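Deliverable D5.2: sample structural annotation.
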Amino acid sequence: MMPTEQTLQWVADFVIRHALCPFAAVPFKEGKVGAEVINSEDFEEAFYAALAQVQSLLDVAPDTLETTLLVFPGDLLSDFETFLDFVYTFEEALAETGADELIQLAHFHPNYCFEDVAEDDPGNLTNRAPLPVLQLLRTGSVAAVVAGYPDVALIPERNVARMRELFGN
C-alpha cells in the first residue's frame, strides 16, 4: 500500500472510527483531505518541501481542499525525537513568516509518546499513525468548527480515556 493510501486508511479506520477528531469525518467524506508524500532523506530538503505544501494548501480554496497530511515514509523522521525537532522547527518557521495565522499544525508518529507518560500507555495511540505525519490545518476552518463545539478543550482528555478503555493493558 502506498504511504498516502496507508495514511488515509488510518484516518478512516482509526481516527474517524474512534471519533478522535470530531471534525475529521465531514471533510474526509467530502474528499477535502489531501495527502502528500515527502520522500527526502535530507532534513533541509524535507523542510522546504513541507513549506511548499503550506503554500500549495493556501493556493487552493477551502471548499476544494480543507487539510493536507504530509507523510514522511523514509528514515529521516522515523526517530520520534528527530520528528519533534522537525515539528518545532516547522512551527517556528510558520510563526516567523506569519503563516501561523493561516495554518495550524497537528502531528502524528508511530512512536508518539506524551511527556511523562509510559511508552506503552494506550493514551499515546491518540497521536500514533502508521508513518510520521504533519497535518496542515487552516486556522479559519479550525476556528469555525471549534466555535460550534462544546467543551473542545476536553477532546484530548476524552480521547486518552477512550484509548485506555479500548486498548488498556
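Annotation notes: Residues 38 and 96 are 22 Å apart (CA to CA). The first strand starts at residue 33 and ends at 37.
The annotation will be released with the project's public dataset once the embargo ends.
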